Model the fold of this input.
Amino acid sequence: MENNNIQQNEFKPKGAIAFFILLVALGLIIWFGIYILMLQRS
Amino acid sequence: MIDKSEIRILIATGIITMLFIFSILYAKNSKNIDLPECLPYNKTYEEPKIVKLDSNIYQVYVVAQMWQFQPAQIYIPVGSTVDFYLTSKDVVHGFDIYEKNVNMMAVYGGINKTTVKFDEPGVYKITCHEYCGVGHQNMQAEIIVNYPSSK
Done:
């Protein structure tokens, strides 16, 4: 029982964090890709 | 008490939001990128013409109608700054200049204005990108930016 509690307290959703970081990075790449294209065309 | 991860996420979100805001302000102020304007309607805008204000400053009054733009060919020298005044004589048309930040609608009873600088010589196609009828795909015009002189 005590072991279970320790495990729950130390749990870190690594997969979800990695997925979130990748999602944000993808958003930044798409946004800045279009942004740089806009600057080149000005 | 706020969790450490939540604080990290809040900081990251704030940094990314500021990055977007500063990028937009940089484009607006340093690169002089601006949005098109809507002007009050006036019948005189329905007459297509090219007005030369200075050696490299032009006003072009573009009239869109099924299925053409008038004037269909615009000759300007390199380095020209052009004010486009756009309207339509019938339905809604699109106005897209290839390789430029211009994407406007030509609306009957409305005038849209944008300013573009042409630093590179070449032929810049204008296309209608709003479906306007059976001849839509042929609705094109061109801006001929030539050097050293213009026609």
